[in-house]
């Protein structure tokens, strides 16, 4: 925000009557000499490049859970799991991937991305090694007496995999957002690691289906992935990548980022920087959670163990991040936006997790088909390609076409006056929300097309569904964090994005259960009619035909339409972003 804009009428942190000099401007270090400044810039550039490469490597490997469809149906056919059990494993990973995100994001903002990458290495190693062992023993147990004794261990393994996915993904995206998210290419800075995350599913599915395909019919159908060997490969790969990230992921010039945020909040009138250091002030205002005495006393007490300047910077960072977290949580438009994300991403997650079983329903055993049936690996790759392309496309197009606010931090405007000075000028501009709504509609069309029976008995048409869902899912997952950085800034990005990213866990679980109920009902009806309408018979828990999925995916499409309404309300509704003059 520019200094000329009017502040809010009731700032949540009152200025200190005894202090007139702002720490944000008075505590900065003296300007270095030109030669030293050039060395510092070169070092910062090198660190940013290393961090970017490390973040891309992490993102390109972190999405291993997105290839669940590659082996989900094998768990069903080989271990005789029900669709509820298979979805239980997928839901365990989804819940573990999303529920800890706020906590991990909070930790990432305050401690940096490197510890998260190391945590990811531990979780992935334990998860995939445990899953490989549990699956192998479960297969042996099935061969002996048919009892299931390893399902709980598989669930725990997939919980660890979910936590590892969350940690590696958050560390990579937060690094790029903070290192590059203040420039004019902030959309691309966030979209690149997210696109790489989507690309990970594509290349991992091809590696799994080609290099780790089963050669033994006793371990699965010929040509399908050998689950034990594939899990072992993922365990080794992701441990190595996590350790590399622990050394390579760094936030460059974070102190300047916090200083700039303090200045922005000071100019807004929301935060008086001198209040941060006011003796005996109760922290019951903006972003405050505790009662504290004079912070200078804390500096003096900590002087024997910590550098006073470093401790001062830490206290200032903590104050600013807590302030921005408080503002984020008390913004009603955030909750509306987060609910919209919940209703959009949940159906997409359920589709990805169950794509393998959906494809199986397209080929009833009572019918004969020409050519080879389409495979889950093919459509995991299609989803990966489309989502990657669309993520990069939306990041680039929104940088070029969307309006950009003058402020590079949290937008706190309450009038429409800022719109005239948003920096968009007279050029054509398309809001980021418009892009989000457009691709959400594409996502719903893919789900509705599947529900309509468009591809039943025509697996060669399934690319239409996977392509539309991949494009919509990828764009929504890319544009949502971009919008968060534009409206609420980058300094507290991991915490803010973590709060919103928690919602899809519930959505994925909800729609996974809905699909499982519809599928199992179809399987039972098929068994009752000896395979006449949908089931595979012989108690194999398999279902065939449109009735196995149609009603579930119609409901998912409707969920996305509701989500569009919620996002539209956050944008254009009462006291929404448009009314408040927030540039998005």
UniProtKB/TrEMBL annotation:
InterPro entries the record matches: MFS, MFS_trans_sf
GO annotation, cellular component aspect: fungal-type vacuole membrane
Molecular function terms, GO-annotated: transmembrane transporter activity
Ranges where the record places region Disordered: 1-40
Subcellular location: Vacuole membrane
Keyword annotations of the record: Membrane, Transmembrane, Transmembrane helix, Transport, Vacuole
Protein name in the entry: Probable transporter MCH1
Membrane topology listed for this record: Multi-pass membrane protein
Superkingdom of this protein's organism: Eukaryota
Low complexity biased stretches: 9-36
One Pfam family, short name: MFS_1
Family note: Belongs to the major facilitator superfamily.
Residues annotated as transmembrane: 46-72, 84-104, 116-138, 150-176, 188-207, 227-249, 435-456, 462-490, 497-518, 552-571
């Amino acid at each position: 925000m520019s200094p000329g804009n009017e502040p809010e009428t009731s700032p949540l942190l009152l200025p200190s009557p005894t202090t007139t000099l702002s720490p944000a401007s008075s505590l900065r270090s003296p300007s270095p000499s030109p030669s030293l400044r050039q060395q510092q810039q070169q070092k910062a550039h090198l660190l940013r490049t290393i961090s970017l490469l490390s973040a891309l490597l992490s993102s390109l490997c972190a999405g291993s859970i997105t290839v669940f469809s590659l082996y989900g149906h094998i768990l069903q056919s080989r271990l005789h799991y029900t669709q509820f059990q298979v979805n239980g494993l997928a839901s365990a990973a989804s819940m573990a991937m999303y529920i800890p995100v706020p906590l991990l994001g909070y930790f990432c903002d305050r401690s940096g991305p490197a510890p998260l990458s190391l945590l990811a290495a531990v979780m992935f190693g334990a998860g995939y090694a445990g899953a490989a062992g549990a699956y192998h023993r479960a297969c042996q147990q099935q061969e002996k007496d048919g009892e299931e004794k390893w399902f709980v261990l598989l669930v725990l393994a997939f919980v660890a995999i979910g936590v590892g996915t969350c940690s590696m993904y958050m560390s990579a995206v937060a690094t790029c957002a903070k290192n590059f998210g203040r420039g004019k290419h902030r959309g691309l800075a966030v979209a690149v690691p997210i696109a790489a995350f989507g690309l990970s599913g594509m290349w991992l599915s091809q590696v799994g289906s080609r290099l780790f395909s089963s050669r033994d019919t006793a371990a699965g159908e010929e040509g399908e992935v050998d689950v034990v060997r594939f899990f072992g490969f993922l365990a080794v790969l992701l441990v190595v990548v996590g350790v590399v990230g622990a050394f390579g992921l760094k936030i460059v010039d974070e102190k300047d980022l916090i200083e700039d945020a303090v200045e922005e909040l000071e100019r807004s009138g929301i935060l008086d920087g001198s209040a941060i250091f006011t003796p005996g002030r109760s922290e019951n205002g903006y972003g405050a959670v505790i009662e504290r005495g004079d912070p200078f006393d804390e500096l003096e007490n900590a002087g024997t163990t910590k550098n006073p300047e470093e401790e001062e910077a830490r206290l200032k960072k903590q104050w600013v991040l807590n302030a921005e977290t408080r503002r984020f949580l008390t913004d009603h438009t955030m909750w509306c936006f987060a609910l919209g994300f919940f209703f959009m991403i949940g159906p997409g997650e359920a589709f990805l997790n169950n794509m393998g079983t959906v494809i199986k329903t397209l080929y009833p055993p009572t019918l004969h088909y020409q050519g080879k049936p389409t495979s889950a690996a093919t459509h995991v790759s299609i989803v990966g390609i489309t989502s990657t392309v669309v993520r990069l496309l939306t990041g680039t197009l929104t940088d070029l076409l969307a309006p950009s606010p003058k402020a590079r931090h949290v937008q706190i405007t309450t009038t429409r006056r800022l719109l005239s000075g948003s920096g968009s000028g007279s050029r054509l501009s398309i809001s980021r929300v418009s892009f989000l709504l457009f691709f959400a509609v594409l996502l719903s069309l893919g789900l509705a097309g599947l529900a309509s029976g468009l591809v039943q008995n025509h697996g060669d048409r399934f690319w239409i569904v996977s392509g539309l869902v991949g494009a919509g899912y990828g764009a929504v997952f890319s544009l949502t964090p971009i919008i968060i950085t534009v409206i609420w800034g980058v300094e507290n990005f991991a915490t803010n994005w973590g709060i919103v990213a928690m919602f899809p866990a519930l959505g994925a679980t909800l729609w996974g259960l809905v699909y499982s109920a519809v599928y199992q009902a179809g399987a039972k009806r098929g068994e009752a009619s000896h395979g006449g309408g949908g089931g595979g018979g012989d108690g194999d828990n398999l279902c065939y035909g449109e009735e196995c999925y149609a009603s579930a995916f119609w409901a998912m499409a409707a969920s996305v339409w509701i989500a569009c309404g919620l996002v539209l309300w956050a944008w254009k509704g009462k006291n929404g972003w448009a009314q408040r003059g927030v540039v998005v």
